[in-house]
Design brief:
Elements: E1 4-11, E2 15-17, H1 36-44, E3 45-51, H2 52-55, H3 64-67, E4 74-77, E5 94-97, H4 101-112, E6 116-120, H5 122-130, E7 136-142, E8 150-151, E9 163-171, E10 174-181
Parallel strand pairs: 1-6, 1-7, 3-4, 3-6, 4-5
Antiparallel strand pairs: 2-8, 7-10, 9-10
Length: 185
């Protein structure tokens, strides 16, 4: 059965986007496509859950097919599906889930088989942790200070989540941290 891995890259001061919504300073070529680290993530991923805002970061939704690193079924949590379903292929498909994070994760787990579900995007990360659906939390810490912007863990309802460190390693200029979620809310 699939496990659920949630998380994303954040600045050392806890932001996943700068004050203008940009994420460029949080990227690192050593952790991008073609790197050993990214290849490992791609191999272990069977499905992805995204929030609507994360999905909309691609100016052209058809870009995902053939370009997005995870060419697997994608489940987008949204209140309103787009009027036109984006392009897909035999590996990458889109399902727009309007009945909440629990439904999106259940559908993604069914699609992922024995591989992991990646739950990505600040709101989705918080929702998955709050709902007790995460098996692991992955945070890649970029050595930058953004000073302001969108915080990843700006949610007092997460204070009772207990984490157990299972891995920490250097990936290019990043520190990749993995935690087992011990007591989901």
């Amino acid at each position: 059965m699939a496990t659920v891995h949630t998380g994303m890259t954040m600045s050392l001061d806890g932001f996943v986007a700068d004050r203008r919504g940009g994420t460029a300073r949080l990227s690192d070529p050593a952790a991008s496509n073609g790197s050993e680290y990214m290849d490992e993530l791609i191999r272990e991923t069977g499905a992805v859950v995204l929030g609507r805002r994360t999905f909309a970061m691609a100016e052209d939704p058809d870009w995902y097919a053939g370009n997005y690193e995870f060419q697997v079924p994608i489940f987008v949590v949204t209140h309103t599906p787009p009027p036109v379903v984006p392009k897909h292929d035999e590996n990458l498909t889109f399902t727009f889930v309007t009945d909440g994070i629990t439904s999106a994760v259940a559908q993604a787990k069914a699609a992922a088989g024995e591989r992991a579900v990646k739950a990505i995007g600040a709101s989705v990360v918080r929702q998955v942790l709050r709902a007790g659906l995460a098996d692991e939390l992955h945070v890649d810490v970029a050595p930058v200070l953004l000073g302001a912007g969108l915080r990843l863990f700006d949610d007092p309802d997460l204070e009772d989540v207990t984490l157990e460190k299972i891995d920490a390693r250097d990936v290019g200029r990043f520190t990749a941290l993995r935690f087992r979620v011990r007591n989901p809310l």
